[in-house]
Task: structure prediction
Amino acid sequence: MKRLINILEDEQINAELQSVLFSLIAACKDISFRVGQGALSGVLGVTEVQNVQGETQKKLDIIANDILKNYLTSNRFVCSIASEEEESVVAANQTGHFNVAFDPLDGSTNIDINGQIGTIFTILPANSALNPGDPQQFYLSGRRQLAAGYVLYGSATVLMLTVGKCTHSFTLDKTTGEFIAASELVNVPNTTAEFSINMANSRFWFEPIQYYINDLLKGEVGIRKKRYNMRWNGAMVGDVHRVLTRGGIFLYPQDKRDPNKPAKLRLLYEAYPMALLIENAGGKASTGEQGILDIELAELHQRVPVILGAAEEVEQCQFYYAQ
Result:
């Protein structure tokens, strides 16, 4: 078993980037404690406030966002911060070399039922020619990510992290407060018989996804010639964690429910980091028509369709888009 610091040293991560990662991790430990206290810490329930996405904020959404902002703005190596809960970029330090974007609490509808929730984050290089409050600090492609990961607050607090070409899994040792790598490198199998999608949206899907999912549901008597199981958590962080730990494919496709919001998931805060984790574990991440990591961000809260997981299964799904 290796400590997180040992893994970072093995991958030759410089001291400044390590510092930013440890600020993120310290914030997530704080959030983990508050999540673990549940109703005892007064963090449950909703507020009367809506975020920039038009979503009603839970108390813990706001608390988690503030915790992350406080830790990161205090780190002199952080230039700019972008959060799903913030309308615009938060300026940190003019001389910082890194920008950090995050979804402070993914799956917040699961908070009050003690379901899986988590923090998703990505670290990108800062542009010294731009003001720290300029959104263009983040207008890069997903290939420019220096590190990405999430912390899952479940029965155990788990960190999935990539800082290079591999994806690592860590578990928080509550006796020491350290994240420990208790397993080998994460690897997503090429094939799968398990998919994760919100079937309640099926009537709004475009034809490629309707045809693809229908073929999966036909199982052994369909063209895929095998039985598929469906799992759905209601939090991207939980569903992607399942894919990373035991394989599968996760889909949140474009749909016709709201013409002003054709896709659900945010490119910067959710799709980029999850795509990097999946691809560095041997999987694939796509919108159905192009690789997620190849998209260049054009708007801070840009949304994209997401299909990721087992490489062969993602390719099969892309085939339906090509018809």
The chain is about 30% helix and 25% strand. The CA atoms of residues 27 and 68 lie 5 Å apart.
